[in-house]
Specification:
The protein is an alpha/beta fold. Among the domains are: 72 residues, SP0561-like; 191 residues, D-Maltodextrin-Binding Protein, domain 2 (3-Layer(aba) Sandwich). Strands 1, 2, 3, 4, 5, 6, 7, 8 and 9 form a 9-stranded mixed β-sheet that branches. Helix 6 packs antiparallel against helix 14 and helix 11 packs parallel to helix 16. The protein is globular, with a radius of gyration of 21 Å. The two termini are 41 Å apart. 45% of the residues are buried.
């Protein structure tokens, strides 16, 4: 659908639904209309991806999937009639973009089998995760009663699920229950249990954050191997962060705060790159420090990097920080929901997430093909310490103050 020679501005004006894809994958300035007008009209998609050494075919696939998601009348909306039988189920989810379409194919097969068996009908809306924040604000935020909640909800998001004034309060009231039938841990997470000790939420998979290092921009500095390395003053104004990917960014903030305290969050803000505009990158008189030496991104997107270039993917030695993909099921609908939970928590779905999307599965029988690579998971004990939303707000404040102080 999209011509790679089109400018970034032409693309987002024709397909505004692609903005979220750009923001989540290395182009945070695309979220700002003023900044888009300043540079996006003079840079082609092809040139922008070349500068970032990202695979054009893979990125085009993400953009086209976002367009298809918003334009199609596929399974995400096919069961959304308000006149649905009151005994039916409501299933809502934000699915990771790289695996959404194949997952929907499996979901459609599952629905056909249910229909043939005369099972309870399902009203469902399974959107791309790139639409996350706006979609959640429209459909989930502000709900005051359990009756208004979907019967099953899938998404990443510390802020969303543990907000004491939002969905978190329903967790505390015992509205949800873990219906996942496997009890063992996946070998990758054996030392950091993803299983909710309160038995309310389920974790079906994870989104790991890793480093993409531009060795050409290191200028004598060592390749960072740990999160502590990234926080070092030598990488001030040298790091691109997934600020537009709220779920993953919040996970990073919370884990840095847990490990290094407020000083660590300030150091992360100090590391934020001053300029990320592709139009500035192409100017030969730009200093090297205006380009990121390190990009922190979901593991999946490191696979879009062209081989043989200056970019090196680094899995942090102290662990890739993860944003869990949660599944919330209403306790009062447990019996009716069990087959649906079994679908999303199945080994087959886990392998699809892990192998096609590189989102490591929590299913104990799924081989995530990661060997013994370590992870950093915030942990249920840390979550239980207090209001997560307050902690995120504090971390955001510290981060913004520090980054503004450096760039002022």
């Amino acid at each position: 659908m999209i011509n790679p020679e089109s400018t970034l501005l032409d693309i987002i004006e024709s397909y505004p639904q692609t903005i979220a894809v750009f923001v989540s994958n290395g182009f945070p300035q695309m979220a700002d209309a003023e900044k888009r007008q300043a540079f996006a009209g003079s840079v082609s998609l092809s040139d922008a991806l070349l500068l970032k050494q990202m695979d054009e075919e893979a990125f085009l696939r993400l953009l086209n999937e976002a367009i298809q998601d918003s334009e199609s009348s596929d399974a995400t909306l096919s069961g959304s009639s308000s006149s649905m039988n009151q005994t039916g189920l409501e299933v809502v989810g934000l699915l990771p973009c790289p695996v959404r379409l194949p997952l929907l194919d499996s979901w459609n097969d599952f629905l056909k089998e249910r229909q043939n068996d005369g099972a309870v009908p399902i009203q469902h809306e399974l959107r791309a995760a790139s639409m996350g924040v706006e979609w959640v604000e429209e459909h989930i935020d502000g709900i005051q009663s359990p009756e208004s909640l979907p019967d099953l909800f899938i998404s990443a998001g510390f802020d969303l699920f543990f907000d004491a004034d939002g969905i978190g309060k329903f967790r505390n009231e015992g509205v949800f229950t873990n219906l996942v039938e496997w009890t063992e841990e996946n070998p990758n997470f054996i030392n950091d249990s993803l299983r909710d000790p309160q038995g309310c939420y389920s974790v079906i998979a994870t989104v790991p954050a890793v480093f993409l290092v531009n060795t050409k921009e290191l200028n004598g500095r060592p390749i960072p191997r740990t999160w502590e390395d990234v926080l070092h003053s030598q990488f001030a104004q040298s790091v691109s962060l997934p600020v537009g990917d709220f779920d993953l960014f919040n996970g990073i903030l919370l884990n840095i705060h847990k490990m290094y305290g407020e000083g660590g969050v300030r150091a992360l803000g100090r590391s934020l790159c001053e300029s990320m505009h592709p139009s500035q990158m192409v100017k030969s008189d730009r200093r090297a420090k205006d380009k990121p030496a390190i990009t922190i991104m979901p593991y999946f997107f490191t696979k879009m990097v062209r081989p043989g270039g200056d970019l090196e993917a680094v899995w942090p030695e102290d662990g890739a920080i993860i944003s869990p993909i949660f599944m919330l099921a209403k306790k009062e609908k447990a019996q009716e929901l069990q087959p649906v939970v079994n679908f999303f928590a199945s080994k087959e779905t886990g392998e699809l997430l892990a192998h096609q999307g590189l989102f490591p599965s929590a299913h104990p029988e799924v081989d995530n093909r990661l060997g013994e690579k370590p992870f950093l998971w915030l942990g249920w004990d840390e979550i239980a310490k207090g209001d997560i939303k307050e902690r995120i707000t504090l971390c955001e404040k510290l981060f913004e103050e520090s980054s503004q102080g450096v760039h002022s």
